[in-house]
Amino acid sequence: MDKIELLSRLLVEQGFVPNSFEDIERGFRIRLSQNSYIDVMESGITLLYIAKSIPCAVAQEYRERIRDNLNRLTALNIVAGIELLSDGCYLALLRKLNSRIMLNELNNHDLTNLYREYINTLKVLPLITGISGISRAQS
Q1: Of the chain's two ends, which shows fewer C-beta atoms within 10 Å, N or C?
Q2: Is residue 139 part of a domain?
Q3: pTM above 0.90, yes or no
Q4: Domain of life, per the record (predicted)?
């Protein structure tokens, strides 16, 4: 079993369902959705990138919320921004993880930490969007 197959199996066991794997310079990319992925570098550095589609009409408001929460985002090691693309607008979060994933030493502990960090990064979205994960009907 090669490293990609092993990683794919371990990711599924941790709750990730990767859409695809892509070779990138000095590592590979695990695509989780069209706009979200994890880059694992040969050096062990791991980057999370999450992009959420937003209405372009609120892009400026979100940009101001990013500016207002800059210290908090920096403390969480997150870079946030707004992407204005031809197919729409996106709120983007980029996070360099403190833990490393070594391709030649894959283990469940590292992937459990990766999953936890991914979920923690997702929890930052409401800080900027002002929308919590709980609908009003539930509260």
Answers
A1: C
A2: no
A3: no
A4: Archaea
